[in-house]
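To illustrate the input format used throughout this study, we show a single complete record. The first block contains the structure-token representation of the backbone; no residue identities are included at this stage. The design step must infer an amino acid for every position from geometry alone.
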């Protein structure tokens, strides 16, 4: 009951913020403009003390970038490994706090940093001048060149960056490599994707001619896939922008200084090249030897568990809120009707992915303790409620007015009429449509993977990055979704048949 109460409260809060966020933002901007000079001068940086006070260092990264950060099975358990993981662990140890890792899409990392979902980003991020406008960076801790990965069969065809005229080059969305393709590979077009393993799939399927990435990462993919080949792209890059550095929220001077102390120690002792790089290579070799899909069944099982949890809870709250919205929309009260119409049209008119990210990064900025799983459930529930409301409304309006009049003539009040006459008949009429919504919800819940929720799609991406295989994990995931939705479809059809029989 406590969980249900908490989830209901969060749903109501999210609903309120969706309506009033624009007004809150306007007020905040006005307030900021009137007191910006005083706030800048009066506030002091407490980033380091805040981390030490809470006892955790929350690090954001995208664990699909070997040898910097990726996943491997260690003693039967899935663990994050790689150069950046070692640096993050060392940094947390120097601060005397516990390391907490948040894995999400690369292009969401800076958003997570700016909304204080993470304390720092350690994800082989290049400290470009554009990024420096929004966040602060530590000193560069590792430097590598830019390499282009191609299919080995095209080795004679592509020999330098000028060989790709009128071709498509892949690069990770939001990365320096993406901008380099646009600026320095004239005649070539760029295709951006959030995950490198998806870019490798695009390469092997002929969707792109090559993929531009960091030297160490390119060599990692090539060493684990005999069908790939990599060469130095010889890009013209600023040495101050090409290396990897830690990113921090703007003004986090004390935390940046602490990070620089850790980096200085690592560089002085050459730990990264002597220890971290060889360790990453060791994990990559052990992974490539045991990268059969059977050994990763726990990934898919865990992902399915999260997917079902999200779906079941979202169906419950989406159905409850959908009933309320449907009754509000058919209500004679003009205010209730207008609010319901506004909500339904707004939710149906915006993508679910945007809603998920807004709830997590937007509402999550006001509620710092809001977990990614809870944010995903709230967003999916709010989205489902809008569609369920329309289904229920159409079902209620499909009941002949004579049914209502007959119930009222028998002495039933409005509440009893709806409870015993209208709703039971409406449920029978809308059962197929509700069933379709529930089945759709199972598939659409995969979108929550963009904020780091460990659902089935998220786990699939981990398997792809760990095994260096792209298509097979997707095929397995597709079959799991099919089995679940087909089973649910048969289950719903059974009850639909019973309801028709009862008529």
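Output of the design step:
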């Amino acid at each position: 009951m406590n969980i249900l109460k908490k989830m209901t409260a969060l749903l109501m809060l999210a609903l309120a913020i969706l309506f009033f966020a624009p007004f809150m933002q306007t007020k905040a901007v006005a307030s900021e403009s009137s007191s910006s000079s005083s706030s800048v001068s009066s506030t002091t940086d407490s980033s380091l003390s805040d981390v030490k006070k809470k006892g955790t260092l929350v690090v954001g990264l995208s664990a699909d970038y070997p040898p910097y950060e990726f996943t491997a099975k260690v003693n039967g358990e899935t663990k994050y490994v790689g150069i950046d993981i070692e640096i993050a662990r060392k940094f947390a140890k120097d601060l005397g706090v516990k390391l907490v890792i948040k894995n999400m899409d690369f292009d969401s990392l800076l958003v997570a940093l700016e909304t204080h979902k993470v304390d720092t980003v350690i994800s082989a991020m290049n400290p470009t001048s554009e990024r420096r406008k929004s966040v602060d960076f530590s000193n560069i801790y590792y430097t590598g060149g830019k390499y282009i990965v191609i299919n080995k069969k095209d080795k004679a065809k592509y020999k330098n960056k000028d060989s790709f005229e009128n071709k498509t080059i892949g690069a990770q969305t939001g990365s320096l490599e993406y901008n380099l393709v646009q600026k320095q590979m004239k005649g070539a077009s760029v295709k951006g994707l959030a995950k490198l393993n998806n870019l490798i799939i695009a390469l092997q399927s002929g969707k792109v001619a090559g993929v531009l990435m960091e030297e160490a990462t390119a060599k990692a993919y090539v060493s684990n896939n005999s069908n790939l080949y990599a060469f130095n792209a010889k890009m013209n890059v600023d040495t101050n922008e090409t290396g990897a550095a830690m990113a921090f929220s703007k003004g986090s001077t004390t935390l940046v200084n602490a990070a620089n102390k850790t980096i200085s120690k690592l560089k002085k002792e050459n730990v990264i090249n002597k220890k971290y790089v060889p360790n990453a290579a060791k994990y990559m070799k052990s992974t490539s030897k045991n990268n059969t899909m059977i050994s990763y069944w726990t990934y898919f099982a865990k992902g399915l568990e999260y997917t079902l949890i999200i779906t079941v809870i979202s169906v419950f709250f989406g159905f409850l809120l959908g009933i309320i919205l449907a009754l509000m929309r058919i209500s004679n009260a003009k205010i209730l009707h207008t609010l319901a119409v506004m909500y339904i049209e707004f939710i149906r008119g915006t993508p679910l992915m945007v809603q998920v990210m807004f709830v997590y990064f937007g509402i999550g900025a006001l509620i710092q303790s809001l977990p990614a799983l809870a944010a995903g459930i709230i967003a999916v529930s709010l989205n489902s409620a809008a569609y369920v409301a329309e289904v229920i409304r159409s079902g209620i309006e499909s009941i002949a007015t004579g049914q209502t009049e007959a119930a009222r003539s028998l002495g039933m009040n409005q509440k009893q009429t709806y409870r015993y006459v209208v709703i039971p008949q409406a449920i029978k009429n809308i059962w197929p449509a509700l069933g379709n919504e529930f089945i759709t919800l199972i598939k659409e819940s995969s979108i929550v993977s963009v904020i780091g929720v460990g659902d089935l799609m998220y786990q699939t991406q981990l398997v792809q990055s760990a095994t260096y295989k792209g298509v097979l994990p997707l095929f397995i995931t597709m079959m799991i979704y099919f089995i679940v939705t087909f089973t649910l479809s048969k289950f719903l059809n059974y009850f639909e048949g019973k309801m028709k029989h009862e008529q």
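Structural context for interpreting the output: The longest strand covers residues 56-61. Residues 19-42 have pLDDT under 50 and may be disordered.
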